[in-house]
Amino acid sequence: MTEGYAGDLTPQQAWELLAAHDDAVLVDVRTTAEWAYVGVPDITCLGRETEFVEWVSFPDGSSNPHFVDDVREAGVTPGDGRPVVFLCRSGQRSISAAKAATAAGLGPAYNVLEGFEGGLDDAGHRGGGGWRAAGLPWKQS
Q1: Contact, 84 vs 67, CB < 8 A?
Q2: According to the model, what pLDDT value does residue 79 have?
Q3: Where are the coiled-coil regions (predicted)?
């Protein structure tokens, strides 16, 4: 166990966990703008939908004071043992989300390393890492 949550997963490991556990939940904690303009992970081929719960709000970046309650509304309840996989843009906000879920008794809670888009490259661009770059299913509106 990583400090405060179940651990970090590569995007491929996250996919494998989601595929192996019918009760596992994928929670995308990015903002509404990121979901709309960048794209979202698509797990419909696994018979489930991605849950969308902002960790911070767009455009002001304020913390979501109802985050844990929103995750519960997505069907995750304390003590149910359902794996919860948190994903953000680059794997940073999702660490905090996994820690908050764990503190609330949800999970085991995991963080997806590199998130959806990965970190910045030498030119200051994202997209060379993460869920999309790993070739995992995603869609764009």
Answers
A1: no
A2: 86
A3: none
3-state SS of 22-89? CCCEEEECCCHHHHHHCCEECCHHHCCCCEECCCECCCCCCECCCHHHHHHHCCCCCCCCCCEEEECC
C-alpha 7 chain-centroid distance? 13
pTM beyond 0.85, yes or no: yes
Q: What pLDDT, on a 0 to 100 scale, did the predictor assign at position 86?
A: 98
- Both tokens of 74, joined, read 């997505």
Cα 94 to Cα 45, 67, 71, 120, 141: the distances in Å are 23, 12, 13, 17, 22
Q: Are strands 40-41 and 138-139 parallel, antiparallel or unpaired?
A: antiparallel
CATH number of 7-122: 3.40.250.10, 2.40.37.10, 3.40.50.720, 3.40.50.1000?
A: 3.40.250.10
Q: What is the pLDDT of residues 101-124, one digit of tens each?
A: 999 999 999 999 999 999 888 988
Helix (H) or strand (E) holding 127: none
Q: How far is CA 62 from the centre of its chain?
A: 18
